[in-house]
Amino acid sequence: MKKGRETKATLKMVAEKAGVSVSAVSMILSHYKNASFPESTKKRVLDACEALGYKPKPIRLRAGEPAKLIVIVIPSYKNAFYTNIVEAGTQRAKKHGYSVMTLCTGRDVSEENHILALCRAVNASGVLCLYQPEHISVLRGIHEEFPLVQLYDATADPELNVISMDGYKVGSLLAEHLYQLNHRRIAYVTKPYSERQSGRNRRLEGMRDYFRNQGLDGEQCVRSFDVETVLGTSAVSEEPGKQGGVSAGSLGSYDTGRLITEELLARQESVTAFVGSSDAIAHGIIDALLANNRKIPRDYSVCGCDNLPVSGYEAISLTTVDHYAPQKACNAIDVLIRAIESQADRDEPAKPINITRVEYEPRLIVRGSSGRCRNSGEK
Hints:
The chain folds into 3 domains: 11-52, no CATH class; 69-165 and 325-361, Response regulator (Rossmann fold, 3-Layer(aba) Sandwich), CATH 3.40.50; 167-323, Response regulator (Rossmann fold). Helices cover 40% and strands 14% of the residues. The chain has 14 helices and 12 strands.
């Protein structure tokens, strides 16, 4: 028997199967910004499309029409600090009817120089940058063509929209906490320094200045260690994760903390507390100490910075500084979308230049990884 021609699925068939109106199906599939449907309804419509083999027509933009797409630029996927911000920012953007595309540069200068071209290629509406590229001209170039918000330290370019936290204050909070616990020999563990990484530098500066204000030698009380200073530049190669073959640029924050701590323990470096420039580095510090049968905080105190969700887990219980990264991400998206939606007025001569700068006050969160120094002598 001859098989009959298959019936092509239509919007009406999808609507009947999903139990909604044709207009509801149309709005859901076209992501109509002024309509709001429960997730269960959206799922029924999408399930009906799948079952019937209905393929929605691609959304076509008119020439010059914005894509309602925000590009979030991050330096790494290895550090949960950035992925948590992307998650919070994506959810916020979604509430405004915007989609998000993440661009990871790996802090590669050539990749950073392509950001503007990529934003043009995808017809981006605006850009949120979560770090400071090596060349500030990259951000200024983006700012000339797209609404831009940077989420970074308070020292960021004053000509840009910035949602910030002051790294110096973070360092002061950590130093005060450890000073009150009688720690006077602290290892500050960080990724390799760069002039553009002012947040890390200012945390160190804030810690040292606190001890100086107590009449002590700031450099002796807080010593800084990164892969290059600990292992030497000759030990840095293209093979990550092995002593004598460490790629400083590709080494993740956790591995950085663990590797440096293991080396300091092997040297019997005289310290009583470790501070990671991020929570991820502090997690590596903790694992290195535990692997070498050291007790926390009996033998060493450990602190971090970021207040990642995992840092509050009972098995980690990391003392850290919360600078409200998810809240800053939401605020940054709000500022960016306001800038996007006022883009039409940007070229008006009488329109004042409006730069938004918001600074969040950091908060120390004391947990089980820090305690009173029990040994004032040499370790």
